[in-house]
UniProtKB/TrEMBL annotation:
Domain of life: Bacteria
InterPro entries found in the cross-reference section: Ferric-bd (IPR026045), SBP (IPR006059)
Keywords on record: Periplasm, Signal
Gene source species: Nitratireductor aestuarii
This protein's name: ABC transporter substrate-binding protein
Signal peptide start and end residues: 1-20
Lineage: Bacteria, Pseudomonadati, Pseudomonadota, Alphaproteobacteria, Hyphomicrobiales
Entries under CDD domains matching the protein: PBP2_Fbp_like_2
Pfam families recorded: SBP_bac_8
Entry-linked Gene3D superfamilies: Periplasmic binding protein-like II
Amino acid sequence: MRLITSTVFALLLGSSALHAETTLMLYTSQSPEIAQQTVDAFQAKHPDIKVEWTRNGTSQLMNIMSAEREAGGIKADVLLIADPINLGMLKRDGALLAWPEAPVEGIDPQVYDKDFTFFGTKLSANGIVYNTQNAKPVSSYAELLVDENAGQIAAPSPLYSGAALVHMHSVLQDEKLGWAYYERLAELDIAPEGGNGPVLKSVAGGQMKYAINIDADVLRAKRAGSPVEFVYPEEGASYFAEPVAIVKGTEKVEAAKAFVAFILSKEGQELAASQGYIPVLEGVAAPVGMPSLSEIKLMPLDADAAVAADEAERAKFIDIFGG
């Protein structure tokens, strides 16, 4: 039996007391409901760590963090943001803490950074949604982008939406799609704009027959009674894994690691599935009506290459569609 000396015991008590006072600041692009569920579940597991959170769109959060860095440092300890490209930009700028020992066993390497600075937490795929009352089913982008669908396809803008930004870079890294995909959208009088929510509503409401949208959002709308159906395109679905990252320079590294570890754990992954997302941890079942990660053909994405090309590709997108 191991004996704990009075000195060590006092140190442990002191450490626990300090830990009990820990407050993490989380910046997230999750919906408020999902963010609160995530925080509540973590705090139930770690009652000695309080999590305060700020929610905003990915682009707005990036602007906030840029201003904070210029003013002296990012105020967040942990980030939970929709896409790997914006986090890749923070990685490039040295703003993220690498954690090579992160608990990623059983998680597909394609959903976390090879340098262990951010980690996918749940998978969402971009694909095709159609209105089941006024549109015929399609199975591919080739079937979608035909003359008869001119003006009948909605799409979010990569200048606004993190998911759409991932979609753009994934498409551009695909040898068969590339810029021809966006040029074809322009030919069909389709201009990507705004975010995913309004795009989905336009299909559910019948204003548009088709759209590029997110599987989890479409499934929730379908369950709520909207006449919509989601298709994983034959060419492959672009995806984002809502990565979590620790901000370099935080004074609360251990509490931040506890948060990341919880999100990646079986319990955290079961929570993601209950929220309607495909879990990234092997052995955790996907939500009813959704495939497992291994059943989806995904478009590969090199996030570092996307970061390097981002400025030029955004500029070309604006050339095609306007700002």
